[in-house]
Write a structure and sequence with these properties.
Layout: E1 23-24, E2 43-44, H1 61-71, H2 73-108
Antiparallel strand pairs: 1-2
Length: 109
């Protein structure tokens, strides 16, 4: 959600701003280097927050997902069209098999 139970805006990395100099512990999912001691200690949150990019992920999940989808959109479209083509081929050949079977049964009578 955009608000964590308060009226303070949520930054892209998931840190709520507007609390002044309050110390918070970032979630482990924000840590790029989990062996770093900064991941286990409290971080001073300020409105002009700057995190160490070597230790913390600074790009948010939603932004990263959109970037990956944009970078691989042509592959996703091709895969989807391939699945649709295979489905139609299966439908076509199953109809051919049903019609052939019907013709064989009609000749027996």
């Amino acid at each position: 959600s955009a608000h964590s139970g308060s009226l303070h805006p949520v930054k892209e990395i998931g840190i709520v701003s507007g609390y002044g100099d309050q110390s918070v512990t970032l979630p482990r999912s924000c840590c790029r280097d989990t062996a770093s001691t900064l991941c286990y200690s409290s971080v001073q949150v300020k409105d002009d927050i700057s995190l160490e990019p070597a230790v913390f992920f600074t790009q948010g999940c939603a932004e990263k997902i959109i970037q990956v989808l944009d970078d691989h959109l042509i592959y996703l479209i091709c895969a989807g069209l391939g699945v649709v083509l295979l489905e139609f081929l299966g439908l076509f050949f199953s109809l051919c098999l049903c019609c052939t079977n019907k013709n064989i049964n009609d000749r027996k009578v």
